[in-house]
Amino acid sequence: VQLVESGGGLVQPGGSLRLSCTTSGFTFSDVDMRWYRQAPGKELELVARIDIFGINTNIKDSVKGRFTMARDNAKSTVDLQMNSLKPEDTAVYYCMTELSSSTYWGKGTLVTVSS
Questions:
Q1: Helix (H, G, I), strand (E, B) or coil at 70
Q2: Running DSSP on this structure, what letter comes out for residue 5?
């Protein structure tokens, strides 16, 4: 099982980034996918979750209306579109899934929101 995040970087407040998670080694269309983040000195938090069909998403309240999550089951990828970014969105963002009660994580991609 592999999950590889990409798309992070430095962006000014109010800017946008699109994170992608490319996966392999499992049947992508059978599992929910999640994005987590961990800000410096803070705990890991769930940002967004999407169901296997890509129909239902759960977005953390503090980013609702700014972040959206989508998946492409044909490509085994999941994206996190982040708009109107704020300094408090600065964090390492991780893609994650759960298979047979085991969790799998990517290595993360750093998002820095700063002027």
A1: strand
A2: E
pLDDT at residue 99, rounded to an integer = 93
Are the beta carbons of 110 and 17 closer than 8 angstroms? no
Q: How far is CA 10 from CA 18, 72, 112, 115, in A?
A: 12, 26, 5, 9
Q: What is the pLDDT of residues 34-77, one digit of tens each?
A: 999 999 999 999 999 999 999 999 999 999 999 999 999 999 99
Count of Cβ atoms closer than 10 Å to residue 73 Cβ: 14
- pLDDT value of position 69: 97
pLDDT of amino acid 73: 97
The answer to whether the beta carbons of residues 21 and 34 sit under 8 Å apart is: no
Phi-psi region of 101 (alpha: psi -120 to 50; beta: other; left: phi over 0): left
Contacts of 8 (CB under 8 A, 6+ apart): 17, 19, 92, 93, 109, 110, 111, 112
Summarize the confidence of residues 90-112 as an average pLDDT. 97
